[in-house]
Fold this sequence. Notes:
Strand content: 25-35%
CATH architecture: Roll
Distance between the termini: 35 Å
Order of helices and strands: EEEEEHEHHEEEEH
Mean pLDDT: 96
Structural class: mainly beta
CATH superfamily: Electron Transport, Fmn-binding Protein, Chain A
Number of helices: 4
Bound molecules: flavin mononucleotide
Amino acid sequence: MNVHEVDDRRAMGYLATKPTIVVTTLHASGIVNAGVFGAYTNLSAEHIGIAVHKESHTYANMRRAGEFVVNVPGADLVKAIAVLADDIPPERSELDEAGLTARPGRQVAAPSIAECVAAVEFRFEQEVPVAGHSFMIGRCVGGWIRKDCLDDDGKINIFAARVFKDFKYPKPLYVLPGEVIEG
Length: 183
Ligand SMILES: Cc1cc2nc3c(=O)[nH]c(=O)nc-3n(C[C@H](O)[C@H](O)[C@H](O)COP(=O)(O)O)c2cc1C
């Protein structure tokens, strides 16, 4: 796949519209874990905050490994979302279960998902506990995007990427961007 790679916070532009994301982390064994997340936001030009359930593998791995990758799936991966959101034991790779391919990390050890349209790498910095979740804050260190999904302003082209949003979670219903209006 023809991708554009960067090693700094410019990769935040690939998350510009906050679509449904898949976070990849490594278990202590080195096996790849993947979880689906919709409750997140950008906190600065280089920081993200994700509300991660404390019982999840993602939470344990973020804290232990101190890093994570935010992958942006296109609409062709919507069926894989259900597999990745399942509670799969740590001895099995969720990527294998979903038929997806690991792409080696650039600045972090955790891989990204090759079939996604973009991936952004983060170092975990701090957490803010909120009820059963923790708001996990990370700093962007780089990432990649498919060249055909990159706009001139360095942000993701959401129409080419066909990103989607989980607007009825926990129902498996997603929306694609419809139109742009000038304000
Ligand atoms: C569309 C969608 C959005 C989700 N958003 C979140 C979320 O924001 N925070 C969260 O803790 N879990 C969320 N989940 C549930 C996790 O994906 C699920 O608990 C998963 O098992 C976590 O994976 P892990 O245990 O491998 O980390 C979401 C699931 C789906 C399908």
